[in-house]
Amino acid sequence: MIRRSRRVRRTRKGIEVSLPHEERELLAELSSQLRELLLADEDPNLARLYPVAYDDPRADEEYRSMVRGSLIEGRLAALDTLDATVHEKVLTEEQLGCWMGAVNDLRLVLGTRLDVSEDDVEIDPNAPDAPARAVYHYLGWLLEEIVAVMAQGLPEPTAE
User: Starting at the edge strand that comes first in sequence, how are the strands of the sheet with 90-91 ordered?
Assistant: First the structure.
């Protein structure tokens, strides 16, 4: 097993993010693309961001009309934070939480576009969508790094 050093880690200064410039530029570009999708009319690639809440179509549509605006606002705020801090070396816990939400949304939208499933673990380097699948796997890895650091900040469970 190859052991890599973590690129997102908690330190005394805050949460250090050690990503190369190219990866930071990729995140900025993906953020811009997701922002455009969120501000556009209904896009089928956003389906995983807004799963069906009710079996009854009328109830589901009513629910969507009530919450969609605030969900979009929250997603745009997370993208704003990602955009503002994408080149920062040290983040606060709150900023990293926004990164977590934004990276998760990016991964969900890309996964929808690629129609990925649990069985899609290997990338065929000759496939036309290989670069997009590599980005999808990268986002999954980055999300895992972020979640691990966020979990370190949780209080220890108390014995009852």
Answer: 8-10, 15-17, 90-91
